[in-house]
Amino acid sequence: MLATVDTALIMPGSRVRVPPLLWSKSSRFNNLDDFLLRSVRSGWTSNEGVRFATLASASATMPTPPGLVRPSRSQPMPQRVFAPAALAVLGSSRSHLRRLAALAVLVLSVACSSGTGPDAGSDPDPTDSPPDPNKDRLEITFGYASGTNTSLASMNLFQITKDGRLAAPFVSSPGIEMLPEWSNDGKKLLFTSFSGGVASVASLWVANADLSGLRQLVVDPNPPANTFNNQIYGSWSPDGASIAFVRSIGSPFESGVAVMSADGSGVRWLAPGGDAPSWSVTNRIAFGKDGFIWTVNPDGSGLLRVTSTGGDEMPHWSRDGSRLAFLHVTPSVGTNHDYDFDVVTTRADGTDRRTLVALAINENLSWSPDGAYLLYDRRDVSDPSQPKCALYKVPASGGASVNLTPDRGTGYCGGSSWRPM
Asked: Can you tell me the distance from the alpha carbon of 344 to that of 325, in angstroms, rounded to the nearest whole number?
């Protein structure tokens, strides 16, 4: 499902896969998942090192590092800022929320509509329902880059409420932060970073919920010279002691699912050739390979192919481990892109297959903590010069989708994770 073209603008005389976001019939990269996985696996990356130029300690007593703007209560939040204060609202009073809102929030209006596809709307709010004391908590972390920059040189993490009304900056640097993943206890955040855009090396970073202890996981402290070394799509073990991820290294080339300790040590291969692992609370690791979804025990035993129809990829476990969500690739008809990516769920054994969302470029699935909803990114490339992306949620039982970010405009999405509270 991939096309190759001569890309003299990138590397004279070379033939590499089409760069992302050039959405046309000649490009088979129809979602960001596909591009990222295949670019890091193909070696179309450099090994120039990873650094955050504007990272700061979550402690208010620490000095502000060079390049970081630390907002005050009387100062609007800059567009690009590392903002550990965003999580303080999770257990705070309404007055604290108002102070945060004065600094940072984006008010996202959500209008109701009906239909079977992803339509802008809002959850029902019966007048006789009691007020939700947690309606203003910033529970969802998601990656987003505004504008039409086809090189995708910058993407930041934001926090939003479960209905999308309020949003605040969370983690920002000169590069790309994306694919967030909260641990099962909600105390640790894991995400992927590209220091210099998608053409740079990919690495995994972890932090506490208040963004203290932010650090890069040094998976290979002494990598071979003149090679690439990428880590992407991290997923926590049930106890938070280990991480499964996609590892791609060169000289000689190897790519697949690997497992390591949460500090980056003890790396070992688990599923060569596998993509996008997800680790369940039942201690099974799901991954995509050769168009099917597979599950395996962390020690490599008990390998099981869960799906059989083909075209399935990017699995994600529900928090209780009872269901799998994944993307199903189908040919697109009457559009300017080649493939659609349907949102599908099954039981853990592959039975009870349900298609929740179809006929669009959907990507980056994640579950609500209670398993009632699925989050996904939807990419709109009907006008390739003005690409759009929004974060949606859809009931896991089926029904209309809700656009949580209807006012984002042109831009690109980078995955989401709903924090267990």
From this structure: 6
Q: Tell me how far apart the alpha carbons of residues 248 and 256 are, in angstroms, rounded to a whole number.
A: 7
List strands edge to edge, sheet with 156-160. 167-171, 156-160, 140-146, 411-418
d(CA 107, CA 111): 13
Least confident of 114-123, 147-156, 194-203, 410-419: 114-123
Percent of the chain with pLDDT over 90: 56
pLDDT tens for residues 359-401?
Answer: 999 999 999 999 999 999 999 999 988 999 999 999 999 999 9
Domains and CATH numbers, the chain: 4-56+80-125+133-418 (2.120.10.30)
φ, ψ of residue 271 to 5 degrees: the values are: -140, 85
**Does residue 192 surpass a pLDDT of 70?**
yes
pLDDT confidence tier of residue 174, bands split at 50, 70 and 90: confident
Q: How far is CA 275 from CA 35, 39, 259, 324, in A?
A: 12, 12, 13, 15
Q: Which of 221-230, 288-297, 346-355, 363-372 has the lowest mean pLDDT?
A: 221-230
Question: pLDDT tier at 226 (50, 70, 90 boundaries)?
Answer: low
